[in-house]
Amino acid sequence: MRILLVEDEPKVASFIRKGLEEESYVVDVAATGVDGELFATTYHYDLVILDLMLPGKDGIQVCRALRSVGMGAPILMLTARSTMADKVTGLDSGADDYLTKPFAFEEFLARVRALLRRGPSGDPAPLVVGDLVLERSTRRARRAGGEIALTNREFALLEFFMRRRGEVLSRAVLAEHVWGLGFDSESNVIEVTVSHLRGKVDKGQGKQLIHTLRGAGYVMREDADS
Predict the structure, then answer these.
(1) Which of 5, 21, 174, 215 has the fewest Cβ atoms surrounding its Cβ within 10 A?
(2) CA distance 50 to 90
(3) What is the C-alpha to C-alpha distance for residues 77 and 100, in angstroms, rounded to an integer?
(4) What is the rounded CA–CA span in Å between residue 168 and residue 177?
(5) Are 95 and 77 in contact (CB under 8 A)?
(6) What is the pTM of this model?
(7) Residue 50: CA count within 13 A, CB half-sphere
(8) Cis? peptide before 120, omega within 30° of 0
């Protein structure tokens, strides 16, 4: 899943980004309210984490602007202000949750998971393609009942494939949604990761699920018996 973090304090942004990436989320960072609004209206995000005090446009202004153009992704607002009036203002501007700094990272992650479960579909059910099951809440993958051990990046890639099953996903789309902005698109990391994931998901199985379409990209779908 892809998250936008709008935070102007470099150390705070780095800490949050690192923690989220260790949970296999793809994280883009914007340092100003103007950039945050631009990112959120240009790219697709599953969650926006928005600091209240930002240069240019503050979090309240950005939140209202995003809701005014119909952006439906959940918004978690972060702030050092802890008064009830500030919290009410944040929620009334369109935020879905409000967390006061400093916070325990475990609580922060719990709020992130809750908002992602609540997302546009509101459906926390496991992802299923054929006999492949991905449980996002427990971060477990199984095929034909057998457990599949995945790295964080492989988990993020598999989740994206399964969420977009049947769609042809180009290299550029995978780079944007699984690796994030700033990824070196000239490297062969995508091909290598897809190959490793295919080996874990498809090797020894009766049906292939991850397919390469030469010149187009990749697609996840059930195929005839191998």
Answers:
(1) 215
(2) 10
(3) 8
(4) 14
(5) yes
(6) 0.66
(7) 34
(8) no
- Going by pLDDT thresholds of 50, 70 and 90, the confidence category of residue 4 is very high
Return the amino acid letter for 225.
D
One-letter identity of residue 159: E
Report the distance separating Cα 111 and Cα 98, nearest Å. Answer: 9
Q: What is the DSSP letter of 155?
A: H
Going by DSSP bridges, is the β-strand pair 97-100/75-79 parallel, antiparallel, or unpaired? parallel
Q: What is the DSSP string of 22-73?
A: HTT-EEEEESSHHHHHHHHHHS--SEEEEESS-SSS-HHHHHHHHHHTT--S
Bridging pattern class, strands 140-143 and 146-148: antiparallel
Give CA–CA dist 104/214, Å, rounded.
46
Give the Cα separation of 47 and 119 in Å (integer).
Answer: 8
Q: What is the pLDDT of residues 91-111, one digit of tens each?
A: 888 889 999 888 999 999 999
Give tens-digit pLDDT for 10-56.
999 999 999 998 888 889 999 999 999 999 998 888 899 999 999 88
Q: How many CA atoms lie within 13 A of 219 on its CB side?
A: 10
